[in-house]
Amino acid sequence: MITLKDCAASLRDAPKRAAFLRAWNGWRGEDPYPPLNAVKPEDIGPALSCIIVFEAAAPDKIMIRLAGTQFYEMLGREITGENFVDLAAPHQRETRIEHYSNYMAYPCGAKWSTDFVKSNGLRVAVEGVVLPVGPRVPGGPLRMYAAFDFTSDKKDIGNKPMDMIPPAHDLTYVDIGYGAPE
To answer: How confident is the model over 87-134, as pLDDT tens digits?
Structure first.
């Protein structure tokens, strides 16, 4: 587990994640996380293409409410409206459910890394940060906003789409004021 301050310090060489974290901090003001009506996508700037927004209605129902253009480019299709759990390989779905259950239970954020593996076998290293935003309606599920940066050469992606988005293999929870899993 790390603090928000430590998370921000670790993003010095991560322009998209750093831009998202700065915007998120501005939206939340003095609150542990921002209300949905404070979110201004224009504050994210060019990082918007690497943003994905989730709403976890149930542990196994993590609906994608918005997916930036980078996801379309990687997957070759629009994923807004899909269940994020279904975008993990069947043997990896419990890991994804566990991560999102933890985000919602505390609530907390996370800093993560994974390898996106294309259908032609190419691997592209990706690192991200995910943070909560208040529910659409009082008492409703929190939304989770995530941003990512490629940490290997993006040209390695090739033109073959990915079939799945693997869960994080290196995840550190970010304490936003409520604690976080160890």
So the answer is: 999 999 999 999 999 998 889 999 999 887 776 777 778 899 999 999
Neighbours of 136 (CB within 10 A): 14
Question: CB of 123 within 8 A of CB of 113?
Answer: no
Query: What is the C-alpha separation between 152 and 177, in angstroms, rounded?
Result: 32
Contacts of residue 5, defined as CB under 8 A and 6 or more positions apart, other chains included, come to none
- The closest of 33, 29, 36 to 137, measured between CA atoms, is 36
Shortest CA distance to 135 belongs to which of 30, 25, 37, 59?
Answer: 37
Q: Which sign, positive or negative, has the C-alpha torsion 79, 128, 165, 182?
A: negative
Tell me how far apart the alpha carbons of residues 170 and 151 are, in angstroms, rounded to a whole number: 14
